[in-house]
Structure to design on (255 residues):
């Protein structure tokens, strides 16, 4: 494993390089993890792939000072694409890292061979994502929720009881807030990646246009949400009741 850092404006994104194979794989971890989550893959695929695994903002050794936007993500990805002379690349992502993978599919789908995803965020619209990125009141509410997770959970339960918020959205947000309460890095990830929000319809259109294959392993993501995302998309295969380990095993078998 080799460690490195890439700068963007006043920010530094730490990454690790595993293997030296001819194919390029970018990896994006979930909240509470770091770049080392791909070690099980690297041990078996180092001769097939060069794996670049990032410490997302708020995690590991990355030093991100301002919110990352889609331009930053695309620019950083292009640097690695050029560095390794890769016409195409594969992307593997888990949980929060799914927003990075799906945003790249939205923005530069022509660069991608395949997406390997486990419980990715970004498959469907979440109301708090739209609110905090598109309105001043929403941004304030977002900051309040992140700073007061216990009170936020109480409010969400009350809204759910009168059917103003869908139950599956509440369950997802409760899990996020529980993690935020436990982990400062998770709260930082929210703050620094609030603009990395893919548009599901645009992602679907790009996947279909470019024929990018998607292996979607799900556990916590509601299956009906995954099915809605994959509707009429032959390029998407859904693996329900799966795990991150099973995603890794499937990737190894396919490689």
């Amino acid at each position: 494993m080799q460690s490195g850092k890439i700068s963007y404006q006043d920010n530094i994104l730490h990454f690790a390089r595993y293997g030296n194979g001819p194919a390029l794989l970018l990896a994006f971890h979930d909240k509470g993890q770091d770049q080392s989550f791909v070690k099980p893959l690297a041990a078996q695929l180092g001769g097939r792939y060069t794996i670049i695994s990032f410490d997302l903002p708020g995690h590991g050794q990355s030093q991100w000072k301002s919110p990352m936007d889609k331009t930053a993500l695309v620019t950083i990805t292009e640097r690695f694409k050029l560095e390794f002379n890769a016409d195409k690349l594969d992307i593997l992502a888990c949980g929060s890292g799914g927003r990075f993978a799906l945003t790249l599919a939205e923005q530069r789908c022509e660069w991608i061979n395949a997406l390997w995803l486990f419980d990715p965020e970004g498959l469907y619209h979440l109301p708090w994502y739209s609110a905090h990125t598109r309105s001043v009141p929403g941004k304030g509410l977002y900051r309040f929720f992140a700073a007061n997770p216990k009170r936020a959970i109480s409010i969400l339960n009350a809204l759910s009881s009168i059917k103003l918020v869908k139950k599956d959205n509440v369950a997802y947000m409760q899990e996020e807030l529980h993690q935020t309460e436990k982990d400062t890095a998770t709260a930082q990830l929210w703050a620094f990646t609030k603009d990395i929000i893919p548009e599901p319809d645009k992602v679907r259109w790009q996947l279909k246009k470019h024929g990018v294959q998607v292996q979607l392993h799900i556990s916590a993501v509601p299956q009906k949400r995954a099915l809605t995302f994959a509707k009429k998309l032959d390029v998407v295969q859904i693996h329900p009741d799966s795990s991150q380990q099973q995603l890794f095993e499937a990737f190894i078998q396919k490689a």
User: Anything to note?
Assistant: The CA atoms of residues 67 and 199 lie 18 Å apart.
